């Protein structure tokens, strides 16, 4: 069995798939956190692995960047590989004065300037949201680990480089930050009757543009996010 973008066989993926944007990050997670990880997909370098974390079977596969890309991979995982939960582990730019580089955003909802939801032909505006049980558990895990985090809306932008706006206008509606994938993922989960969550570490701040994290600090916050996502699985 193969889909247009995944060559894995049915059953090769666990019920829960962690999704970083970057294929090398998928490889890093598989090599550093999973036991007996097996490469199950490498079409277009979108590496997917399945292994075990604390005895639980879990997969990790990259989404690529942007809503069209995560739209394809999450659709195929939900509909053709019987995946139940997709947990995006990403990074975001922060719009929020309480959030600093390395903090975590749990994206309860996802606003967007994209048109992904138009395909569902709804007579209004669909509100893409995460699965509540995953949101709740992720927040509990952040509390237990003493990680700084906020739960709220994120803005899934179709542009990283934008001619007229940084997206900061969304801050007046309490939106916490910007990334590029969650809204499409949440739409696909809703349509498939499955579960999704996006957790992001703050990689840069539009409020505090001088804030920077060293490579080591970024790795530490990434590790915290990864452990939360793996515990969720
Ligand atoms: N824009 C879009 N996506 C991002 C950003 C950003 O500033 N930072 C991290 N992911």
% residues in beta strands:
25-35%
Helix content: 25-40%
Q: Given the structure, what is the number of helices? A: 5
Bound molecules: hypoxanthine
Rg calc = 17 Å
Strand arrangement within the widest β-sheet reads: 5-8-7-6-9
Mean pLDDT: 95
User: What overall form do the CA principal axes indicate?
Assistant: globular
Largest sheet entry? 5 strands, mixed, barrel
Terminal CA distance reads 25 Å
Order of helices and strands: EHEEEHEEHEEHEH
Which residue ranges are poorly predicted, with pLDDT under 50 across at least 5 consecutive positions?
none
Question: Could you give the count of β-strands?
Answer: 9
* Strand-pairing-aware structural class: alpha/beta
Could you please describe the fold and organization of this structure?
By secondary structure, this protein is of the alpha/beta class. It has five helices and nine strands. It has helices at residues 23-33, 67-80, 132-145, 182-192, 215-232; strands at 16-19, 35-41, 48-53, 56-61, 85-94, 104-112, 149-156, 177-179, 195-205. The protein has a five-stranded mixed β-barrel with strand order 5-8-7-6-9, surrounded by four helices. The chain is globular and about 45 Å long. The model has no long low-confidence stretch (mean pLDDT 95).
List keywords for this structure.
233 residues; alpha/beta; five-stranded mixed beta barrel; 5 helices; globular; binds hypoxanthine
């Amino acid at each position: 069995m193969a889909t247009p973008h995944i060559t894995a066989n049915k059953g090769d993926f666990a019920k829960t798939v962690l999704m970083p944007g970057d294929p090398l990050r998928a490889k890093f997670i598989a090599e550093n956190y999973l036991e007996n990880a097996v490469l199950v997909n490498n079409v277009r370098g979108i590496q997917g692995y399945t292994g075990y974390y604390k005895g639980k079977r879990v997969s990790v596969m990259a989404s690529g960047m942007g809503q069209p890309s995560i739209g394809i991979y999450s659709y195929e995982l939900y509909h053709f590989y019987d995946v139940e939960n997709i947990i995006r582990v990403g990074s975001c730019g922060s719009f929020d004065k309480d959030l600093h580089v390395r903090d975590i955003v749990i994206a309860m909802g996802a606003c967007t300037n994209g048109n992904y939801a138009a395909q569902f032909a709804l007579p209004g505006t669909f509100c893409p949201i995460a699965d509540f049980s995953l949101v709740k558990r992720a927040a509990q895990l952040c509390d237990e680990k003493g990680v700084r985090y906020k739960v709220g809306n994120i803005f899934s932008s179709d542009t990283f480089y934008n001619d007229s706006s940084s997206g900061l206008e969304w801050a007046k509606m309490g939106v916490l930050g910007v990334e590029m994938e969650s809204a499409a993922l949440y739409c696909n989960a809703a349509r498939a009757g499955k579960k999704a969550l996006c957790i992001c570490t703050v990689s840069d701040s539009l409020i505090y543009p001088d804030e920077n994290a060293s490579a080591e600090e970024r790795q530490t916050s990434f590790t915290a996010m990864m452990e939360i996502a793996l515990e969720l699985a």
